Amino acid sequence: MHVFITGGTGLIGSAVVAELLAHGHTVLALARSDASAAAAEAAGAEVLRGGLADLDTVRAGAARADGVIHLAFSNDFSSAEAVARSVAEETAALTTMGEALLGTGRPLVTCSGTPWIPGRPSVESDPLPTDGPVGGRGRTVTAILALAAQGVRSSAVRLPRTVHNNGTGGFAGLLTQIARQSGTSGYPGDGTQRWPAVHALDAAVLFRLALEQAPAGSSWHAVADEGDEVRAIAEVIGRRLSLPVKPLPTEAFGPLGEIFATDQPASSEHTRETLGWKPVHPSLLEDLEKIGA
Fold it and tell me: How much is the pTM?
């Protein structure tokens, strides 16, 4: 397939581009900056200049492709207002790409986070949350999946709290940033809450499988580690950075503090059995040993 991808030079996107090219697909990558364009070209992708907010460009990219993978997100979590702006920008872009694919039967693979279900790991059939700091993303992804009724082979890869590579990425990466800035490797609550995780290279394989195989309207969990205790994550970070490890108030973690404090393990049993996905790369706790190395 000729695949249009947004976010193709990020931690996950660069892995997805490499995975697609290694399996015979060609890639058209949206690139907002000169640096992103150079990185995409160096990886072997064709470049379409523009950003997620350039809806005419996004529409043209989707129309040119045999399939679309959406990964771009501004990742500005500095305030609740910034998160809301990021969600609104993504919603407009995804809606535009979905409209471009109506009636074509082509795949549109988007992403979200895994949901959290009290008392048990979440599974692929659980609904996404539609309230809270990132509830808008849940509403948007749900709407994209509903395009299955209008001739779009839409699917969603649900990403865990940490997608990592070489000790960076995701919620664990944010904990590391906060630790460096504050001088303390902290965690909210008692630290027994669990976060799922996956290596970026394993997640990339699942995005390719969803593009190639996923039925319309389906959701999949890119979860390798069902749930590591946040205290255990903070302990590795603290040891690698030679910083004290202790609980901190939820407010110390900014607009995502509420989510950071939530127990949210997730299962990928259905995804593995149905799509044949098998994570093979290092676990989160293993990968965090590379911090500072």
Answer: 0.93
